[in-house]
Amino acid sequence: HYKQLAMTSGAYNYSYIFKYIIIGDMGVGKSCLLHQFTEKKFLADCPHTIGVEFGTRIIEVSGQKIKLQIWDTAGQERFRAVTRSYYRGAAGALMVYDISRRSTYNHLSSWLTDARNLTLPNTVIFMIGNKSDLDNQRDVTFEEAKKFAEDNGLVFLECSAKTGENVEDAFLETARKIYENILSGVLDLKLTDGVTSRPTVGGSDGVGGGGGAGSRQDSGRSSDCAC
Prior knowledge:
Blueprint lengths: L3 E2 L10 E9 L5 H10 L12 E10 L2 E10 L6 H5 L7 E7 L3 H5 L1 H11 L5 E7 L11 H10 L3 E4 L8 H18 L10 E3 L18 E3 L9
Parallel strand pairs: 2-4, 2-5, 5-6, 6-7
Antiparallel strand pairs: 1-3, 2-8, 3-4, 3-9
């Protein structure tokens, strides 16, 4: 049901905009996941995000073209006050840990608390165990993480930003669940900023200077070193 689509220059060719945020500890690979999804490339020397970065891609779900606006947030504690402001109105939250670093898994409860407190009750939260290519260095079992996800009502996948394994599925399954919530009436478009319906040609898409499909932009804060 999913396709990547090029954006038609000068006109909107999508029915919805879905706002995503990516959250999790520093160094778990949030920026690398975003780059793999939007650019189909792995950044071996992915710099640590300073503040927030931004990327977009247009997909298709059940015949509807949807533009994903993805906000990649910094994982350092000193940026939490800044990044918390980006939770508001998010339709989807990708919560990432590193399967080879247990500390990043142990901190998921804190990230989940932020996500639950700062987003709407019907925001889709998708839990990602990144760096599945480092299975020989695994510090968190799949079964343990799956149980945590089930206990907290989350969708869960292990992914690899390096190989691309399951990266598409994580972003696209989140979109599918958001779309299901729209169809079922669980998500009221009048009450959420995270979904915009059918923008008009020549109008604003709600984000200043948002790039086309596959673009990745800095939101005005500098990047300095990591992922």
